[in-house]
Design a protein that fits this description.
The complex is a heterodimer of chains A (413) and B (382). Chain A has 12 helices and 14 strands. Chain A has 413 residues and is an alpha+beta fold. The chains are: A alpha+beta (413), B alpha+beta (382). Chains A and B meet through strand 1, strand 2 and strand 7 of A and strand 4 of B. The structure holds copper (II) ion. The site of copper (II) ion has 7 residues of chain A, from loops.
Chain lengths: 413, 382
């Protein structure tokens, strides 16, 4: 077949050059606009605390410089491609080497890189500062949720008399330099609240520190950023910043002694169901058997990571199971997420009120946890872990038992 | 009619088809399905390649060209001898022997057969790649040397290292030092001789090296057969030592044999100090100047504390790990772990893990220094 023939036939099937350009431009525009998404709470271009600001002050200029260099390079490439396109002209004279140009093109990037390196190193050291810490919180990752232990002592002036254990939501006082001590109980995870600081890996046997400080009361979301198995995508977290007075209220509430459900209520039946089915993994502080002896969990015997979320104050949190499934109605959640500053503390401290409680997720979680979140929790297939679960198994509860448990859990606040 | 290339692919197609049938018939479950699908895919791929090869006559000859059956590269007679049929046969024999004796023989033989298959195929192909013999020779080398040399070199290095390690494990610890020095000296000396005597023939040099290598491997094999030297068991830190209930001699021996170096200083949950006046306190990583008398420890997590002994006496840090009912229902006794006795001014690392909440233990979790009364740091495990 003759060459011109071929071009003729193929050209016929292709969109005209102009249409092609329009399409490419549309796709490009779409990609650019995706960057402007409004509902993007994990946008790291919006720092909400001094540590994130330090990072932002570094990454913005670097981003712009890299952007300008990128545009220049791509522009030059584009220009050269079009300008020197093969139009059948003669091959130009070939030359080799241009020392002046080569030296300039070596020194210029070196200067730019040095210019970036100095502030980078300074920022790295500033982000590692520890001596101004006013509060220590242990953060431990496991498949597939985060646990927080509040060390006793002062936390930004608020005295914590007994350790507090919670999960998913890290509650911190505003304007207080908090130091997280991050580790893991199984595989490597990574803690990240983009609005407040960068990422920090959680590595078993190691203890990594990360500064956290929020300027304004509010809820800042994040997620595990190191692939950690089946439900990595469902391992999320949030930092909740409360003004110091509100933080005091939160601490007092967390440490309030256990209030047993009213006798003969559905919740009281739920307490029994909980002790029978759940307490081997989950701790509810202060809960006791009918003979008065404390009910103590033994998650180390049943779960690979050796822990399960502490449910003492479940309903003070707004999402469950790796902070993935909301127990707040969508409306209440939107309000909570969008409130910043003065009104936030009050809203958050109400906990999950009856109007805001959306039991769908919690109910489904009790009915079929592995259906909601992929977990290694098939009781018939645990040889590789010596009979222990990763995650929560399906306990085959009846609908009655689930009703009782919900009634019991709803009071855990 | 069939070209060399298409013969190979027709054979491979037949083999993978048979494989697929055997696999489908013998292996059940998802593995069986996956494997069968995989093998059928392979068979189809080979059939496709066979077709292409057949149609293009191995890509060497235009099908229209007269006399191609005689002149084409594919029609050239084989060159030289090949060791690969023999190696393959040895490998297959090894597989058979390995299947009934040791798995390692089986595995090594499978590797040999696979390697031989690759070598054989490439050699067979390169010998007929063109009708130019010299070019064909070079082709094989160009393809296989980058693979053969590094693999062979690592195997040889591994054999040497393994032999040497067996020798070092067998001979006495003190003798080992001398063996190391002497062998090193000999190698250096021989190197000097080689360098000085430029004119030495390849044969002589090769011979000397071969004798040395043989000696090393021979002694290595002998050492491996005779087994390791007995390695002395030192008494270990144990609960009785940590709680101070062991005999004075045992405690002394444990401490005498222990290493005093601290390997790691990072990642500590707390720095624990025994001050000059024997006051015990902890500094939490982070808050520099607040002395803590209690530390919150996340449960089921390995944690590390670094003990600094600033008192004038050698002291150890003991962690009390609680008391739990024994399996037979009796009360059980207190568990503990500790550092070795740390010289004045020294440091030691202590790693521990508490799986149960404090409420489950009948004795408190805490850090103490045996011999120092009234000082402790509480460990809070929520
Ligand atoms: Cu994770």
């Amino acid at each position: 077949m003759d060459r011109s023939d071929k071009t003729m036939t193929t050209l016929g099937d292709m969109p005209s050059p102009r249409r092609r350009w329009t399409r490419a431009a549309l796709v490009g525009l779409g990609l650019v606009l995706a960057g402007c998404a409004k509902d993007a709470p994990q946008d790291y271009f919006q720092p909400k605390g001094p540590n994130a600001e330090k990072i932002d002050n570094l990454q913005r200029p670097v981003f712009y410089i890299a952007g300008i260099v990128g545009v220049i390079v791509l522009g030059a490439v584009g220009y050269i491609v079009f300008k020197f396109k093969d139009r059948g002209q003669d091959i130009p004279e070939q030359s080799h080497g241009n020392p002046k140009l080569e030296i300039a093109l070596t020194i210029l990037p070196a200067i730019i890189l040095a210019g970036i390196a100095v502030p980078t190193v300074i920022t790295v050291f500033e982000l590692d500062k520890k001596d101004d810490t006013e509060c220590i919180i242990n953060v431990t990752g496991q498949q597939w949720w985060w646990e927080y232990d509040y060390a006793t002592g002062s936390c930004g002036g608020v005295e914590i008399a007994e350790p507090i254990v919670t999960s998913g939501e890290l509650v911190i006082p505003t304007d207080t330099p908090v130091l997280l001590r991050i580790t893991s109980r199984d595989v490597i995870h990574s803690y990240w609240i983009p609005a407040l600081n960068g990422k920090r890996d959680a590595v078993p046997g190691r203890l990594h520190t990360l500064r956290m400080q929020a300027d304004e009361a509010g809820l800042y979301t994040g997620q595990c950023t190191e692939f950690c198995g089946l439900s990595h995508a469902r391992m999320r977290q949030a930092a909740v910043a409360l003004e110091p007075a509100d933080f005091q209220t939160w601490v007092d509430n967390q440490l309030e002694p256990y209030a047993a459900p009213e006798a003969d209520s559905l919740a009281a039946e739920g307490e029994g169901t909980f002790i029978a089915n759940c307490s081997k993994c989950h701790q509810v502080n202060g809960i006791a058997n009918s003979d008065g002896s404390p009910v103590l969990s033994d998650p180390d015997l049943y779960v690979v990571s050796g822990v399960a979320p502490n449910l003492t104050n479940l309903l003070t949190r707004t999402a469950i199971a790796g902070w993935t499934f909301d127990i707040l109605t969508e409306e209440c959640r939107t309000t909570l997420w969008e409130t910043r500053g003065a009104g936030f503390g009050e809203l958050y401290l109400q906990g999950v009120t009856p109007e805001c409680f959306d039991e769908v997720a919690l109910r489904e979680w009790l009915r079929n946890p592995t259906g909601m979140k992929p977990m290694f929790a098939d009781a018939t297939n645990l040889e590789s872990t010596g009979g222990k679960y990763r995650g929560m198994p399906n306990l085959n509860l009846t609908e009655d038992q689930i009703d009782q448990l919900i009634a019991f859990l709803i009071e855990r606040k | 009619m069939f070209t060399t290339g298409s013969k190979l692919f027709v054979g491979a197609t037949a083999l993978s088809t048979v494989g697929a049938i055997v696999f489908a018939a013998s292996v059940g479950g998802p593995t069986g399905i996956l494997g069968t699908i995989g093998l059928i895919t392979v068979a189809i791929a080979f059939a496709f390649l066979a077709g292409i090869n057949f149609f293009t006559r191995d890509g060497n000859v235009s099908a229209m060209e007269p006399g191609a059956e005689v002149n084409s590269a594919a029609a050239q007679p084989p060159v030289g001898r090949s060791m690969w049929p023999m190696v393959t046969a040895v490998g297959i024999g090894g597989i058979a022997v390995g299947a009934v004796s040791k798995p390692v023989v089986f595995k090594v033989s499978v590797i040999i057969v696979l390697a031989a298959a690759v070598e054989w195929m490439i050699q067979g192909w390169s010998e007929r790649a063109s009708s130019d013999r010299a070019y064909n020779d070079g082709l094989r080398k160009r393809l296989l040397h980058p693979l053969e040399f590094p693999i062979l070199a690592s195997v040889i290095a591994a054999v040497f290292i393994y032999s040497f390690s067996r020798i070092m494990l067998t001979i006495d610890k003190d003798a080992g030092r001398w063996v190391f020095i002497i062998i090193g000296a000999i190698i250096t000396a021989v190197g000097f001789v080689f360098a000085a005597k430029r004119g030495m023939s390849k044969g002589t040099a090769g011979g000397i090296i071969a004798v040395g290598a043989l000696a090393l491997v021979g002694v290595g094999v002998a050492s491996a057969v005779s087994g390791q030297r007995p390695i002395e068991e030192h008494p270990h830190i144990n609960t009785a030592v940590c709680l101070g209930t062991a005999s004075a001699e045992e405690i002394e021996e444990v401490d005498a044999k222990a290493s005093q170096t601290v390997a790691a200083k990072s990642n500590v949950l707390a720095n624990v100090y025994l001050a000059e006046d024997e006051h015990l306190f902890a500094l939490n990583g982070g808050i520099g100047n607040v002395e803590y008398q209690e530390i919150t420890v996340p449960r089921s997590t390995d944690v590390h504390v670094l003990f600094h002994n600033d008192s004038p006496e050698p002291r150890r840090l003991t962690v009390h790990l609680g008391t739990f009912p024994a399996a037979d229902g009796t009360a059980g006794s207190e568990l503990a772990d500790c550092t070795t006795a740390v010289e004045a001014g020294g440091e030691a690392f202590l790693t521990f893990r508490l799986d149960k909440s404090q409420a489950a233990s009948s004795t408190p979790y805490r850090l103490t220094v045996p011999g120092v009364e009234g000082q402790e740091i509480k460990l809070l495990v929520p």
